[in-house]
């Protein structure tokens, strides 16, 4: 028989055995925790099922996941069942080149040339941003855009057209801006600028009312110009600076007078 372990060597052996025992208990607890979170039972996972023949993964219960990378960019539910995607205190973002962000206050679609809403029953396009005569769908009280390039904006008959912004509203036209209505009301918290680059500002009405406490005409100062360079042909031209912060990007020319074409 071998010599028994005594003294300091025996103490080290006992410490090693106790350490391994503690690690085994901790590992067992973590295993039970993982089984509880994934709901793993004798018949498998109760909240998740893999369908290898269809290359599908079926979530049977409510599942909390931070992000999902979908195969072939397709996420769907079974026929006759709804698919509910909810963001807890955050937006739901679907990103497949184009981005769809659904939040509690707004739904945003970005990085697309055209957005269409198609009826799943009839297959017809209910809404599209590429409509030549765009109409706001029924049930939508207003349309919020940062910038829109249109030929004409018109409200329905006997209804008012309201254009508003929390900061500033710019109405620009390469060939002019024409506003026609039975009554036109322009209101601003600070300043209102009416400007014509190559012509006049014409107010033509039966009665024009200015409700201004103190109206003064500013003294004209010396003209100021800014040099601009065309990116296509390198041609240099000057433009008159109409206001502070006016840059070359604000210049709009008719096609026949555009120096960059």
Automatic annotation (TrEMBL):
GO terms for cellular component: cytoskeleton; sarcoglycan complex; sarcolemma. Its main location: membrane. It is found in: Cell membrane, Sarcolemma; Cytoplasm, Cytoskeleton. InterPro entries: Sarcoglycan (IPR006875), Sgcb (IPR027659). The keyword Glycoprotein applies. It comes from the Eukaryota. The chain crosses the membrane at residues 12-38. Component of the sarcoglycan complex, a subcomplex of the dystrophin-glycoprotein complex which forms a link between the F-actin cytoskeleton and the extracellular matrix. This is Beta-sarcoglycan. It comes from Galendromus occidentalis (western predatory mite). The lineage of its organism: Eukaryota, Metazoa, Ecdysozoa, Arthropoda, Chelicerata. The gene is LOC114828371.
């Amino acid at each position: 028989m071998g010599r028994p372990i005594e003294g300091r060597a025996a103490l080290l052996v006992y410490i090693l055995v106790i350490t391994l025992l503690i690690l085994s208990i901790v590992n067992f607890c973590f295993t039970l925790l993982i089984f509880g979170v994934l709901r793993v039972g004798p018949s498998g996972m109760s909240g998740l099922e893999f369908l290898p023949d269809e290359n599908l993964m079926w979530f049977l219960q409510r599942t909390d996941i931070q992000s999902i990378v979908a195969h072939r960019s397709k996420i769907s539910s079974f026929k006759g069942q709804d698919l509910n995607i909810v963001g807890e205190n955050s937006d739901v973002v679907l990103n497949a080149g184009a981005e769809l962000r659904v939040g509690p206050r707004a739904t945003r679609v970005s990085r697309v040339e055209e957005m269409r809403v198609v009826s799943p029953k009839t297959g017809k396009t209910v809404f599209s941003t590429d409509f030549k005569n765009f109409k706001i769908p029924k049930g939508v009280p207003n349309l919020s855009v940062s910038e829109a390039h249109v030929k004409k904006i018109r409200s329905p008959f006997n209804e008012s057209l309201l254009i508003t912004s929390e900061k500033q509203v710019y109405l620009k036209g390469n060939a002019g801006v024409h506003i026609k209505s039975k009554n036109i009301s322009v209101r601003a918290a600070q300043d209102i600028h009416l400007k014509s680059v190559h012509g006049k500002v014409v107010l033509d009405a039966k009665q024009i009312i200015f409700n201004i406490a103190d109206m003064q005409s500013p003294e004209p100062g010396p003209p100021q110009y800014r040099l601009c360079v065309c990116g296509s042909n390198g041609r240099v031209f000057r433009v008159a600076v109409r206001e502070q912060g006016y840059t070359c990007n604000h210049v709009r020319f008719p096609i026949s007078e555009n120096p960059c074409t």
